[in-house]
Amino acid sequence: MFARFFSVSALVILTITTVACGSRHDSDENYYLVGANIKLPYWDTAGVGFSSAANQLRVRAAFVGPDTYDPKAEKQAFDELIPKKPAGILVSPADPEIMKDSIDRAIAAGIPVITVDSDAPGSKRLFFIGTNNHQAGFMGGKRLAQELKGKGNVVVFTMPEQTNLAERLQGYRDALENTQVKIARVVDIKGDPRIAFDTTTEVLGKERDKVDAFVCLEAQCGQEVGTVLNNYSVHNKVVIAMDTDANTLDWVQKGVIAATIGQKPYTMTMVGLHMLDDYYHNKISNMDLDWTHDSFAPVPAFVDTGSVLIDKNNVESFRQTNKTMTGASK
Length: 330
Hints:
Elements: E1 12-15, E2 30-34, H1 41-57, E3 60-64, H2 71-79, E4 88-91, H3 96-108, E5 113-116, E6 128-130, H4 133-147, E7 151-158, H5 163-175, E8 180-188, H6 194-206, E9 213-216, H7 221-231, E10 238-242, H8 246-253, E11 259-262, H9 265-281, E12 302-304, E13 308-310, H10 315-326
Parallel strand pairs: 2-3, 2-4, 4-5, 5-6, 6-12, 7-8, 7-9, 9-10, 10-11
Antiparallel strand pairs: 1-3, 11-13
Helix pairs in contact: 1-9, 2-3, 4-5, 6-7
């Protein structure tokens, strides 16, 4: 809640590389990644992928946006880029409705825009690169039903306005359709994971026997739920989390969280920058068109970077790979 009103961060420069002699890239060729809440470990990983692609291509690239969940500040950061006429923009819309007009203005100005991680399907963005969020939710729902042996009541933590989280929730609903597992409550955390902490505390105090599981559709909630369960020494609740921050993985290793769904932010931004670079140098005749139903479209409709379920069986191997690829300490 009050975290929404924290100030916008200064420009975060991920990499500024010297353009090599003989390269096809211009000295003023700049690419941007725009997000919200960019201090999250999830976005650290995305930043590494973006920076790696920039180094491969020998282009200038920067990551901008607010340090906290603030869709309006994200829009402001995006709008400030349009007059600069960058070679391309990757953006993860915290609120697709707020970002729609800004994305459309960038496209109208001839700037290629691709959404990553979270989509704005009503905008004129070229396409979306990221997780098949319905499938990720379906995967989580199947594991949830298995852990609950097909019966129980669930509290879900989400942010309903985000398209990707809405798709995950629908995936859970579809996976649970023929079971006796019921979603008893959907909680909007409003970008503040402390709401997950407070709600879990409230549930354990008033409805402990009525709630059997907690599902976290957003990255920060899992560690909050795990902390509360550990504080109260509660061991008979199932938790399915989202993403792979260090604290969430700690609770997976300790058995407090049954499983978490890992996305591929490194892949999203690396692939995204390579594709932006291609569209900048091989320009689309009309970026303003909707290519979705065109059999000869110059752009894909969607690039699925995949997801993976992480539990006690593979969490350590994931951490080791993550450390090798990103330099993460855990």
